[in-house]
Amino acid sequence: TRRSSDLRSFQVSLDGPERVHDRSRSRADGTGTFRRIWNNLLAIRGSSLQARILLRIHVTPENWRLLPEFLSEVRDIFLVDDRFIIYLKPIFCGPHGRHVAVLGEDERSRILAELEPVLLAGIARDARLCPGKLCYAAQHNWLMVRANGTIGKCTVALNSPANAVGRLLPDGTLQMDSDRLRDRKSTRLNSSHLVI
Which has more pLDDT, 29 or 195? Predict the structure, then answer.
């Protein structure tokens, strides 16, 4: 049994500034999710919570021109706090069954070369920028919670039935499908419920 107080490492994905993020990440009722996420990040920054927050900021053909201003804001608000790390994630493959504009390899390199200095301006160490060579879904201890309560592993294969490995229940427990996790070569759970 795990309690929320045991959780210390979080990844939060943002698709850019509020108007861009809310177009791609809306709740079931159609309202945007940016403001709530941002306010929660500010609450963490204002707290004494011992945690590591990886802010995964997606870079796409549609948003990259808006990112310098947004990254400056992120830098000034969050990178003054050692608990926050930024991961600039160029999108180079789209979710299955859905068209998403993606960046080509040359384009990715060029755009990251423009954005990283903006993010790191005035920051003493570039350890605050996470290298982009990881796939979190392959790690056994990484899960995502969708707005509808579905627990998944991969943010690219959102609508794949194999990606649904559990549910966040109204009482705050996680009901996990151990067989699906095992099929994904992920962690084997001894219990079908975890308390968070």
Answer: 29
CA–CA distance, 33 with 38 (Å, rounded to integer): 9
Say if strands 173-176 and 144-145 run parallel, antiparallel, or are unpaired: unpaired
For residue 185, give both structure tokens: 């070569």
Neighbouring CB atoms inside 10 A of 152's CB total 20
Question: CB under 8 Å to 131, separation ≥6 — which residues?
Answer: none
Q: What is the DSSP string of 39-90?
A: HHHHHHHTS----EEEEEEEE-TTTGGGHHHHHHHHHHHHTTSTTEEEEEEE
d(CA 157, CA 98): 10
Residue 186 confidence (pLDDT) above 70: no
